[in-house]
Predict the structure.
Amino acid sequence: MEVLKDLEFNIQENMEDELVQQALMKGIDLREYSKEIEDQLNDIEQASISDYLKESSNIASLHGQIVSCDSVLERMESMLEGFQLHLGNISSEIHALQQQSMQMNIKLKNRQAVRGELSQYIDELIVSEAMINHILETKVTEREFLEQLHELNQKINFVKEQSFKDSRSVHDVHGVIDKLKFKAVAKIREFCLTKINLFKKPLANYQITQNALLKFKFYFEFIACQAPQVAREVRDEYIDTMAKVYISYFKAYATKLMKLQVERVAGKEDLLGVDDTNRSKGFFSKPSVKQKSSTFTLGHRGDVLTAHLESPAVVPHTASKDDRKFSYEQLFRSIQFTLLDNACREYLFLSDFFMLSGAAAAEMFNAILGKTLDILLKEIDCHVKETYDAISLFICVQLVNKYQLMASERRVPALMKYFDAVLGLLQPRFEFVFFQHIHSVQTCDTQKLGQVDLQPHFISRRYAELCAAIIALNEQSENDQAVR
């Protein structure tokens, strides 16, 4: 049954073929049509065979070419596979070379770092012939000695540092460096003491010597670090020498200046209420009212606070030749200005050369100038106890205030205590003298003041002149605490 069904299905499918339908429509016998088709296929087959036979040589040639191409392609395939394998090997080799290059680069950097550290270490240890020759033979004042001393100082500090680390390499140069250090310290000590001895020469300009020492201030820094005992010896010698120099200079200078003071100094008889009309030099002399004029009038005395505040100091020898005389405030200004100038320069020198500041600088300053300041204070105290010149005292107070301000501007605080001590002498005396003037007016005998006339009374004139002088000086003051 299934065979019949398949046969029926094939017949039905063939019937639907276009050629079969055309043959049926034309009424052609299918068997004849099939035979005709079969004959045509046989003819085509025979023709095709003959064509193949004709082209057999070409087909054989083509077959040979195909076989040849296959062999060529096979060889190329093997070559490419080998090339691919070779490229894989090259890539691995490149990667290996890259790793080696990185390792070599790291090794190079490490060696360079070690080389730099080692070179610096060796340079710090090596003592050159130039250093030995300059330290031993070159003069201390030569620039080459100073340069080699800087290098020697670095090597000494480096050897000390390495000695704490138990480095054995420093033992090879330790002895040489110690010998050079001792030689350098000895030469510097001799140089400094020689310069300090120059201060002892009469009429020596010690500022020149100080400037010469400042050019080589590293020398003291060197011995302070490497030989503290020698540095202490130089420091003590300088203190002792300069203390004597300043005492001698200012004591002699103050003594010579006081000989140039005007002969007449205001006393108790120069108070406001004291009548001097009865005191005369001779039988026919007139009352000496004009003798008191400088005591109560200002005149040009105030110039020491303005135009002559920083004028050059009075030279006693020159003034004596010219037979010049000066008021006390002029001499006081000359002494105090000279002291200010020298003390400021000395303080700055101590700070710079001996590397001091603050309390240490003040202590060394007082060790040098302390006795000199005491001598000047005693001289001021002696004069102050005797004078009754209120204007002179007030001018001196103003001078101290101004010089105190100048010392502050120059950043020299060491003089402040001295100036305060001077003010402690002047201000109480000024107040005492001023109250004595008032008391003299209050206690004067009015019956002895003379007859009333049209001229201003001498007490009135004195009072007006004194008040005008004090007011004028007070206006020039830059200190709000000025006595009023």
Observations:
- Residues 278-293, 478-484 have pLDDT under 50 and may be disordered.
- The two ends are 157 Å apart (CA to CA).
